[in-house]
Design a protein that fits this description.
heterodimer, A: about 35% helix, about 20% strand, disordered C terminus, B: about 240 residues, Ribosomal Protein S5, domain 2, 5-stranded mixed β-sheet, 4 helices, about 30% helix, globular
């Protein structure tokens, strides 16, 4: 059946000798062709994806085309692509793993119409390489031969186009076989896809950048950087301990000078280095870009440098020189890059004046990336002038040692600078978030639910599921106006007096089959993205807001967890997991539920379900509902108390308060009594998550998706302890319980903000909670620090999180396993699950960053049109939370802004006290201490600012063309700000973020209206809809803890 | 050679085989006239030559003689030109001693040694080309040689290696696959009874996966048995024709 051939390879050994290696190569008659036109479908035994049958031709790219134009081949418009194995291997060998993985994921993507044909294993397609034949020639010959075979294999019915960049091949093979055409890639696009302008532009830009590269390599003038060492040397060096390996992190605020290498895994233990390694300057960074995995050689101790603690902007290139740096830390230089982590970057073209100054080489233009951490990129384009006012995406192609900047090519335009949509698109691209709308194929998979054709519970499902519609009082508690209700609760007394608590979660996996189109899409998104003014759903709205959502008064499928509790001690006796049908009786909002809990039945009008009842039955129903909520609260209190005894961190209780208190406003740090209902609901969800985690771990010990929250590193608490000491508090960070207790004690009666700031510093010091696969970690590491649970997962929000969908599938499989039923679907293996977890964690991080950046964008847009000198709103009260050598970091509770305020400006003038304690610039000097900073003028006057002092600041926006605008703070007075109408506005002293969003959006829209004649105003209700689901459940809670943490707008440097 | 893909997404191995497929096996018995039994085997590009002398009297020190069974003496060597880089191997180095011991254990389990007490059986194996699975090739060659010598055995001993890549068990590893450093299991099987004569495992493997790898190796060994059986029958037929029956 198999034929054996031998391949002779010549390899170079470590010592540089050539080695002749003979490898076997087996050929077979039947290799799956993945074409529906296949003449022998039985022999080819297709599984996996097939090419679609409605294409006019198949296209086979040559190896060079696959290498250079993969981005264009990724266009979904291009259909019927056959990648030959020869071409794929060429990519693997010459372009490295990153590009190859990209090709692999393209092939796996069921949405994309392309397949791989293993031509080298087919007996008729395989051509041995002849003696003296160049590899390139042989590859082209093999691919052509395979193309001809494929044409005949499909019964000569489907014309095949082979695209190649090799002019000789076009000449030689062009007319050899009828039905197999050989043309160049440019011709192919021109002839077959004349309308696909995006592809043409991309093609043009790739071609140009290649030409530029070629001409440059011919010039090859003086070296700008040292050459990277070869891979073998690097690996040997790492093993011997001469080099260390790590990820390069560029300092955002001193991108030109400072970068740090965070050590990875084993190397940090061996080298005995506790801290990161400083890479000082671009020369030492040696062409590595933020995020690359690099190999570093440590410099001798004498050349070690310190990092700078001063605040500074990015604009000025070298101002750190004047400052005295802190004590030296390990410093090194990059000697090689193990893995490049290049992605697409958003850049801005230089303005007209700057272009002229660049002068002589008008073809090549240096563009500035939006992200400060990325160096300028040189691209060749003729459209520079036309693209001046736009944000565009470029791709980095190479960075030669002879070139000061990397070379790249232009990919596409995002939008105008300063335009809301353009800026939002920028944020999305910079976080690698793709928000393409749901395709036809994906929407086809969803069931319909229209007034004409309402969706109904099927009889078969009714038989299989436990029916709770008549037996249980099920209700949901959510923020006002919420649409995607994914959890509901129930509680009832059983006949023996015990209680039965039920948590019912929307059964998303019933509608989203594993590996369906929607599933693939949801997996790539991994989460619903919330930006300041909009959201991008993970699932189509027919599912998220309708069929999966547990709305009141309609039948819905659910996955339920039900506990039987002892009537007095509330000990859990038994637990039941399974699929159910429920009908939620009430869809309550938190406020209404709280009123009911307080036996305040005045809110009865707010419950729509009770509107049409007479007074008596209304009262009875209310009584029943209030009783249920009461019992629920009772149980939750109990469970929580038990968790607290185990050392649960009370910290997050505070976060709940902060977070859930203001559904729409994550910046609201004003103290407000939390509703107990919030905690009740949160507690029930934690309980459900915990029990599901236990269940799936027991059933699948090596492939369960769990969530861990590792204990924080003690050294991260140093700043917190220092700050607390300034106010005379001590913080004990040894365990989660001790930390929570000491934070509770650190309360300044005169200033509630102190405690809040301390708490957010504590949360910032924590590690991130992460998803992981239970097979990849020892059992002791499963622990959840914040919740003090041994096992935890996410189960309760499958509409918004992909991790929950996986957990649902695992739970279903676990139930099936218990009942000895066949497992319906293949579960992910530990390795696949680990990869998926990494992806989800990564996406979650991107979602957080995008949310934070969009909030900052809106803040800037809000303040942009205000004149800081006259507008009253621009003067606000701030609190100092960190001291730096030339300024202080200030938090403004009213707007939730954190930023740096300078005490020393560029002309070396310092702040001095003027009339009415107003501050003004005067010559003088600064003195910095642990907890205060003193500025003394030459005249002898001095101003002292302490940690946690209240000051008055003026907010203005620092516009930036290439980057995002930033908020600038300026100290006005060292006394707290007196708001003239503070008494009036006390009940709602803050500008809600949502108002801010609305105002900015309105401005943006007005501008748009002025520009365009056709206006499409977004109705106001939509904002309500957008804001609603925030901060409802634990997911947002844990994630937004990070958001709440005082991330500086401008000063992460130092200390 | 950064990251050679041992098993592609389409299920092909580097040399074009699928996970459970063996390399091409060719074998001949009776290649030397002066020895009691001899055989030559090619498993893919791994080539081994086995020669058997005996049973005969104990050579050397008589004290080694066993009162109740025959002594099985195995010696392994590999040619200087057997690997990619030409390398002189000292006689009796650690690797060949170990291999000799393994072979001895394997064949003590298979040969009916109690039929020849106080005598000795010598098995010499030389590897001419090493391309992965040398132990398996040696065992298979030696089996044929022992059969050729007419020494009574319980059963064929068939050996095969197996590895584990990306959640899939691979049968009959080639040199490239062995060099990648994954877990590797060598199995010598008595196919008729399903008894295991020798089982050796390199590197770490989760015990959940062991069963699959073991099954892959056992299936491969049974496949080897079918092939060897065919070779023996062919040889016997040829021999009987030559003898003029």
């Amino acid at each position: 059946m198999l034929q054996k051939r031998e391949k002779v390879l010549l390899l170079r050994t470590f010592r540089g000798r050539t080695l002749r290696i003979v490898r076997e190569h087996y050929l077979r008659a039947c290799v799956p062709c993945h074409s529906p036109l296949c003449a022998l479908p039985a022999a080819c035994s297709h599984d996996g994806k097939l090419l679609s049958s409605d294409v006019t031709h198949y296209v086979i790219p040559d190896w060079k085309v696959v290498q250079d134009y993969l981005e264009i081949l990724e266009f979904p418009e291009l259909k019927g692509i056959i990648f030959m194995q020869t071409a794929c291997q060429a990519v693997q060998h010459q372009r490295g793993r990153r590009q190859y993985n990209r090709l692999r994921s393209l092939l796996k993507d069921t949405r994309h119409d392309c397949i791989l044909f293993a031509n080298e294993f087919q007996e008729q397609c395989y051509l041995p390489r002849e003696k003296g034949e160049a590899v390139e020639k042989w590859q082209t010959r093999s691919i052509y031969n395979a193309a001809v075979w494929y044409y005949h294999h499909c019964g000569d019915r489907m014309p095949i186009v082979m695209v190649t960049e090799d002019a000789e091949a076009i000449e030689q093979y062009g007319s050899e076989t009828q039905g197999v055409f050989v043309i160049s890639f440019k011709d192919y696009l021109d002839n077959f896809w004349p309308d696909l302008s995006a592809a043409h532009e991309l093609c043009e830009s790739i071609l140009q950048s290649r030409r530029a590269r070629e001409s440059e390599s011919q010039e090859s003038h003086g070296r700008e950087y040292a050459e990277h060492l070869p891979l073998e040397v690097l690996e040997a060096g790492i093993r011997l301990g001469r080099y260390v390996q790590g990820t390069l992190n560029v300092n955002k605020y001193r991108a030109q000078i400072e970068a740090f290498v965070r050590l990875q895994g084993a190397s940090s233990k061996d080298s005995g280095l506790a801290s990161d390694i400083l890479i000082h300057g671009m020369k030492a960074r040696n062409r590595a870009i933020h995020g690359d995995v690099v190999v570093v050689e440590l410099l001798p101790k004498g050349e070690w440098k310190g990092r700078t603690g001063a605040l500074c902007d990015n604009d000025s290139e070298d101002k750190a020189s004047s400052e005295a740096p802190s004590e030296p830390m390990p410093t090194g230089r990059v000697v090689g890059i193990l893995q490049k982590n290049w992605r697409d970057y958003v850049v801005t073209f230089p303005s007209k004046e700057e272009v002229q100054s660049q002068g002589k080489n008008a073809q090549k233009i240096l563009v500035s990336p939006w992200d400060y951490r990325i160096p300028k990129i040189r691209i060749s384009t003729q459209q520079a002038e036309a693209l001046q006012d736009f944000r565009v995406i470029v791709h980095i192609d190479s960075w030669e040692s002879t070139s000061l900047y990397p070379n790249g090519h232009f990919v596409r335009v995002l939008g105008r600078i300063g335009d809301l949509e353009g800026e939002i698109a920028t944020i999305l691209v910079e976080n690698s978030i793709s928000v393409t709308p749901f395709s036809e194929a994906q929407l086809c998979e969803t069931p319909v639910n229209t007034p004409e054709k309402p969706w109904q519970v099927s009889a078969e499902e009714e038989r299989r599921r436990r029916d709770l519609r008549r037996t249980h009082l099920v209700f949901s508690i959510d923020p006002k106006g919420c649409e995607d209700v994914d959890d509901a609760l129930s509680v009832r007394t059983l006949s023996n007096g015990d209680l039965e608590l039920g948590v019912h979660i929307a059964d998303v996996t019933h509608f989203v089959a594993s590996n369906s189109y929607i599933d693939v899409k949801a997996r790539t998104r991994a989460t619903t993205y919330y930006l300041a003014d909009r959201r991008y759903d993970m699932l189509p709205s027919v599912l998220s807001a309708d069929l999966c959502s547990l709305l009141g008064g309609v039948d819905r499928y659910a996955v339920s967890v039900m506990w039987q509790l002892d009537k007095t001690s509330y000990e859990i006796k038994t637990v039941w997991y399974g699929r159910t049908i429920i009908r939620s009786a009430y869809k309550l909002c938190y406020e209404a539920a709280q009123e009911l809990l307080d036996r305040n039945f005045g809110i009865v009008d707010e419950i729509p379900e009770l509107k049409n009842l007479d007074e008596k039955s209304k009262q009875a129903r209310l009584e029943e509902l209030a009783g249920a909520i009461e019992r629920l609260t009772d149980i939750a209190r109990h469970v929580r108390a038990k968790r607290n005894r185990c050392g649960a961190l009370e910290l997050e209780g505070v976060e709940v308060r902060v977070q859930l208190d203001d559904k729409n406003n994550i910046h609201d740090l004003i103290p407000k009594q939390p509703l107990e209902v919030h905690e009740t609901v949160a507690e029930c969800m934690i309980l459900a998550n915990h029990w599901v985690a236990k269940k799936i771990w027991e059933s699948f010990p090596h492939q369960a998706l769990l969530r861990q929250h590792p204990p924080p590193h003690q050294e991260f608490f140093a700043e917190l302890r220092k700050c607390a000491a300034a106010k005379g508090f001590t913080i004990d960070t040894r365990s989660n319980k001790a930390l929570a207790d000491s934070l509770d004690k650190a309360e300044d009666p005169t200033d509630p903000m102190v405690n809040r700031l301390l708490r957010s510093m504590a949360t910032q010091a924590m590690s991130n909670a992460l998803y992981f696969s239970s097979g990849s970690c020892a059992e002791e590491e499963f622990h959840h620090y914040g919740l003090a649970l041994d096992k935890y997962t996410h189960f309760t929000s499958p509409i918004r999180r992909y991790s929950d969908i996986i957990v649902h599938r695992l739970l279903m499989a676990a139930i099936a396993k218990d009942e000895k039923m066949e497992l319906k679907e293949n579960l992910l293996s530990n390795k696949d699950l680990e990869e998926l977890c990494r992806h989800i964690n990564n996406r979650n991080r991107a979602a957080q960053h995008a949310q934070k950046q969009s909030t900052e964008l809106f803040q800037c847009m809000y303040f942009k049109d205000k004149d800081p000198e006259t507008e009253e709103r621009c003067i606000a009260d701030g609190i100092i939370y960190s001291i730096r050598t030339n300024g202080v970091l200030v938090f403004i509770p009213r707007f939730g802004i954190k930023g740096a305020a300078y005490l020393k400006n560029k002309d070396c003038l310092v702040m001095a006290c003027g009339r009415d304690s107003c501050l003004e610039w005067k010559p003088g000097s600064l003195q910095r201490f642990q907890d205060r900073i003193i500025s003394t003028t030459t005249g002898g006057e001095s101003v002292t600012l302490h940690l946690f002092d209240h000051v008055t600041v003026r907010i203005s926006v620092q516009a930036s063309r290439c980057h995002s605008d930033t908020i600038r703070l300026e100290l006005v007075s060292n006394k707290p700000h007196k708001d003239p109408n503070s008494e009036l506005s006390q009940p709602s002293p803050l500008l809600l973020k949502s108002d801010l969003v609305r105002e900015v959006t309105r401005c943006a829209e007005e501008a748009q209206l002025a520009q365009e004649v056709v206006a499409h105003a977004i109705p106001e209700e939509e904002y309500l809809e957008y804001r609603q689901t925030k901060g409802r459940s634990l997911y947002m809670l844990l994630e937004e803890i990070r958001d709440l943490a005082l991330l500086d707008v401008s000063g992460d440097c130092g200390m | 050679m950064a990251g050679l893909e041992l098993l592609s997404d389409q299920g092909y191995r580097v040399d074009g085989r699928r996970a459970g497929e063996l390399r091409k096996i060719q074998a001949r018995m009776g290649v030397f006239a002066q020895a009691d039994g001899s055989a030559y085997i090619e498993q893919g590009n791994t080539k081994a030559l086995a020669v058997v002398y005996g049973p005969h009297e104990i050579r050397g020190s008589r004290s080694r003689a066993l009162p109740d069974r025959a002594l099985v003496n195995c010696q392994y060597s590999s040619a200087t030109f057997s690997t990619g880089e030409r390398k002189r191997r000292a006689h009796g180095d650690r690797k060949s001693c170990e291999m000799g011991l393994q072979l001895r254990q394997t064949f003590e389990a298979a040969i009916l040694t109690q039929l020849h007490p106080r005598s000795q059986i010598d098995i010499y194996v030389q590897v001419l080309q090493a391309d992965g699975g040398t132990y398996a090739a040696c065992v298979n060659a030696a089996t044929l040689a022992v059969l050729d010598a007419g020494i009574p055995m319980r059963d064929f001993v068939c050996a095969c290696s197996a590895g584990f890549v990306d959640g899939t068990a691979l049968a009959d590893l080639s040199h490239v696959e062995e060099a990648a450093g994954g877990p590797q299991l060598a199995l010598a099987l008595l196919p008729a009874s399903g008894q295991i004569a020798l089982l050796e495992m390199d590197a770490r493997l989760h015990e959940d996966h062991l069963e699959w790898v073991l099954e892959a190796a056992a299936q491969a060994a049974r496949d080897v048995h079918t092939l060897l059986d065919r070779v023996v029958r062919q040889h016997v037929r040829e021999a009987s024709i030559l003898l003029g029956d």
